[in-house]
Amino acid sequence: RMTMNKMVLSLCLAGVIALPPLAQARPVTLTTQLKNYSGDGAYLAIYVTDAAGQYQKTLWVSGKKAKHYKNLRDWARGSGLKPAEYDGVSGASVGSGRALKVTVDLADTLIDAGYEIRVDSAVEDGRDNPADVRTPLTSEGAGKPAAGRGYVQSFTYDM
Fold first, then answer.
1. Mean per-residue pLDDT pooled into runs of 10, the chain (159 residues)
2. What is the distance between the alpha carbons of residues 151 and 33, in angstroms, rounded to a whole number?
3. How many other C-beta atoms lie within 10 A of the C-beta of residue 54?
4. Which of 6, 34, 49, 67 has a CA that sits 20 to 30 A from residue 85's CA?
5. pLDDT at 145
6. How far apart are CA 94 and CA 63, in angstroms?
7. Around Cβ 34, how many Cβ atoms within 10 Å?
């Protein structure tokens, strides 16, 4: 016969066992170095895609005027430009020759699992560069600069 205390303890233990494990996350520092170019500050969208190139998560958006976000084409299409996708992960645009350095929390499950970090870049009255940077999100790739093909000179992530 179960006592009330044993029954409560059993129910508590059953609840603990039934809970899914919480995803572990680690701080990752993203450094985007821009080339020297003429023009206004650059808008950047830094985001994660899966192995098929499908948008998964916004890591950071630089540029205060949301009306220009549509020029970050691949990110805009993937995120649907929903404010919930960039609220709390946005800041000022980045000037020519300057670096943007931000630290974000990234789920461990994204590392070494076929995901990529991509950076779209755009400058007002300048070119738009979807996938200016594409780099696999791997433990080995941490700390190794990836070259950009537009306004970004290099992009590095450090764990």
1. 49 45 83 95 97 96 94 97 92 95 95 97 94 97 98 97
2. 9
3. 9
4. 34
5. 98
6. 7
7. 24
The count of residues in the chain is: 159
Query: Which residue in 28, 29, 39, 52 sits closest to 121, CA to CA?
Result: 39
Question: Is the CB of residue 78 less than 8 Å from the CB of residue 55?
Answer: yes
Q: Is 88 left (phi over 0), alpha (psi -120 to 50) or beta?
A: left
What is residue 62's predicted lDDT score, i.e. its pLDDT?
96
DSSP 157: E
Per DSSP, 24 falls in state: P
User: What tokens does 87 get?
Assistant: 């609220």
Query: 3-state class of 75 per DSSP?
Result: helix
For residue 157, what are its two tokens? 């992530």
> What is the radius of gyration, based on Cα positions, of the chain?
20
pLDDT of residue 3: 54
